Amino acid sequence: MSDDKQVTMHGNPLNLLGQAVAVGQAAPDAELLANDLSPKKISDYKGKVVILSVVPSLDTPTCDLQTRRFNSEAAGLGGDVVILTISMDLPFAQKRWCGAAGADAVVTLSDHREAAFGMAYGLLIKELRLLARAVLVLDRQGKIAYIQRVKELSEEPNYDEVLAAVKKVV
Fold it and tell me: Would you call 63 a catalytic residue per the annotation?
């Protein structure tokens, strides 16, 4: 399988479903659920630079670290940048996690209902029905400016690369 169709968890291969996206293409739209169960779409954030921080589950150590890190980086990015943390966690679990972590600078969105985001971005793990770890940066027009698929689920993304990509499109 190609690199964009597989990840590993503790070295064990897992297959990704859906169509992998590429830099330069328009970001696929997908309907997700906000913490209050209201529908939110990726396109709702057009006009802003968007960081899509995709995690398997907020209730795991690496996802917790990744989301806390982006929450702390948010203050230095300015009001034109929005950080969306997307997982298959239920909206109630995301809201609880944000409250416990004091995470108020990231928007958590759930793909649990239809896995529409996971399929649209080629990030749905077939064997687990969770999302693979990835970070994407969308420009103000909704085009994909940067993609980082983290090959090993237990590893954090390269934050410096993500922040450099954001600075290029702000």
Answer: yes
> pLDDT for 36-79, tens place per residue?
999 999 999 999 999 999 999 999 999 999 999 999 999 899 99
pLDDT number for residue 2: 56
DSSP assignment of the chain, as one string?
--GGGEEEETTEEEEEESPPP-TTSBPPP-EEE-TTS-EEEGGGGTTSEEEEEE-S-TTSHHHHHHHHHHHHHHTTT-TTEEEEEEESS-HHHHHHHHHHHT--SSEEEE-TTT-HHHHHHT-EETTTTEEPPEEEEE-TTSBEEEEEE-SBTTSPP-HHHHHHHHHHH-
Domains and CATH numbers, the chain: 3-169 (3.40.30.10)
- Quick check: pTM over 0.85? yes
Residues 6 or more apart whose Cβ sits within 8 Å of residue 122: 4, 5, 16, 17, 18, 19, 20, 21
- In the set 63, 131, 134, 162, the catalytic residue is 63
Report the C-alpha gap between 32 and 45 in whole angstroms. 13
